[in-house]
Amino acid sequence: MNNYHDYISFLHRLADAAGTPALEGFRASIHVDNKGRADAPADDARRYDPVTDADRGAERVMRDLIEATYPDHGIIGEEYGALNREAEHVWVLDPIDGTRSFIAGVPLWGTLIGLMREGRPTLGMMAQPYIGERFFGDGQKAHYRGPHGEGAIKTRACPDLSDAILFTTTPGLFNAEERPLYDAVEHKVRLARYGTDCYGYCMLAAGQVDLVIEAGLETYDVAALVPIVEGAGGVMTTWTGAPATDGGRIVASGDPALHEQVLRDLALCRS
Amino acid sequence: MNNYHDYISFLHRLADAAGTPALEGFRASIHVDNKGRADAPADDARRYDPVTDADRGAERVMRDLIEATYPDHGIIGEEYGALNREAEHVWVLDPIDGTRSFIAGVPLWGTLIGLMREGRPTLGMMAQPYIGERFFGDGQKAHYRGPHGEGAIKTRACPDLSDAILFTTTPGLFNAEERPLYDAVEHKVRLARYGTDCYGYCMLAAGQVDLVIEAGLETYDVAALVPIVEGAGGVMTTWTGAPATDGGRIVASGDPALHEQVLRDLALCRS
User: Fold this and answer.
1) Which range of residues forms the domain containing residue B248?
2) pLDDT in tens, B23-62
3) Do the Cβ atoms of A208 and B27 come within 8 Å?
4) Domain count, chain B
5) Chain B contact set for A165 (CB, 8 A)
6) Does residue A37 surpass a pLDDT of 50?
7) Hey, is the C-beta of B107 within 8 angstroms of any chain A C-beta?
């Protein structure tokens, strides 16, 4: 890719810009809207979908920077929608992925910034400004910067599901069709943990955990994470093994052998 | 209390000392034992109870400091048990509360240090060294130090359960008798989040969330948190309203009016 280093610098610049409004809203008294579906059942995680001023402010500053710097590029953002999405280069923004953690004071949210080229995620960053962490990937390698210093990260080997640590944001993500499939995998793993959003994919890239299984995701939830997970040696696809780019039902595995096994398990239960 | 400021300085000294072994183990390749019950059912969260070298190292340095500084004080620790527990002053230590978060790379664990006097929790600290956060309380006031600076913290008003944000570490904490009671409350709240351990009580003290409901806790899980929660204006008791000191089934509420309501709900369901 031309301009590779320019794009990396620009990713950091976007993350810097988004960090200010995001941090101003974190643990402050902020206005919380609700764009969730009021008619959803009470135990449906999607019922409550908070959107904060911080969310909108962080996306706005990133869009302004992109439009000023790369006027021919497209943008897909969670809060302000798509602009020129057929462009060769499209920036995919989720200013605060993990808004529920954000409004509960828990620093597992992150700013997701992805660059797609011809519809394929090529560069991605997750920035967590409260902790001061950044995870970056380009599909070939992945990188961490934070309280522990700076360096390359890699997924870990875990060929056997019974040894795996699994993350999901909440079992409430899954609908009645998805839930039994997820539960069947959860019952086979060594340990399952909830509440992770984008942070879970970065822990997978950093070799701390082995699986993330989710559903109901959007392009802006995944486009930045695919180059990080794949750059660290992992695999991230839909439950049927298709590219993760369009979101939906997503599995990420640190060990490609484990990925095959989980896809088989999910498919087996469904047939 | 005599020596109040000495004790506060000493709490910070203990947290400093514990931070080094704890951080060395966090996100490193470390040996993980299993002191869980191998005969527990597969979906029982208590089946997998990892204990790391970091856990033991952090408790050891704190015990050594206490024994050298206050030789007539007692100690209750998660890893190395009780020493002189009938003393007037007893230090209660959980070197890494949230070991499952710890081994999964998630910085929601914390070092819990409590000081009980005549069996009553009087001072408490939660230290999260990776993020660089400390929460302190003495039952009258509570204090935060971290990336956002330093200052007093207070719980927030939330008289109505339908407005509340609820934390629990995992629904897997609850046994067959406890689970329906917990679920009934969870279905009434605005938002429930999992995966928080000690971090959840500190977010409650900081006015970010309204309720924490857990079960199966020990003295070392709660003794440090009671002075923080109560110092911030909250209430922390068993499900029947008894002092939380001995652990067991625990509810913490930021708003005392909400606490009454939740205790009634739990009791009503049980009768």
Assistant:
1) 161-265
2) 988 987 544 444 544 444 444 444 444 567 889 999 999 9
3) yes
4) 2
5) 103-104
6) no
7) yes
Distance CA B43, CA A21 (A): 41
| Residue that finishes a domain, picked among A100, A121, A152 | A152
- Does A189 score more than 80 pLDDT? yes
Say if residue A44's pLDDT is above 70.
no
In this complex, is the C-beta atom of B101 within 8 Å of any C-beta atom belonging to chain A? yes
Residue B263's CB is within 10 A of a number of other CB atoms, namely 18
Residue A266's pLDDT band (boundaries 50, 70, 90)?
A: confident
Give the closest of A104, A148, A190 to B48, CB-based: A190
Query: Are residues B123 and B201 both part of a single domain?
Result: no
Would A43 be classed as within a structural domain?
yes
pLDDT, tens digit, for every residue of A211-236? 999 999 999 999 999 999 999 999 99
Q: How far is A196 from chain B (nearest CA, A)?
A: 8
Helix, strand and coil content of chain A, in percent to the nearest 5, comes to 35, 30, 35
Please state, in angstroms and as integers, the Cα–Cα distance from residue B43 to each residue in A192, B32, B171, following that order: 10, 20, 10
* Alpha helices (runs of H) in chain A, residue ranges in sequence order: 4-25, 53-69, 99-103, 178-186, 197-205, 219-222, 225-231, 256-270
Q: Tell me, what's the ipTM? A: 0.88
* B208 contact residues in A (CB cutoff 8 A): 27, 103-105
Taking 50 as the threshold, does the pLDDT of residue B199 lie above it?
yes
User: Do the Cβ atoms of B193 and A104 come within 8 Å?
Assistant: yes
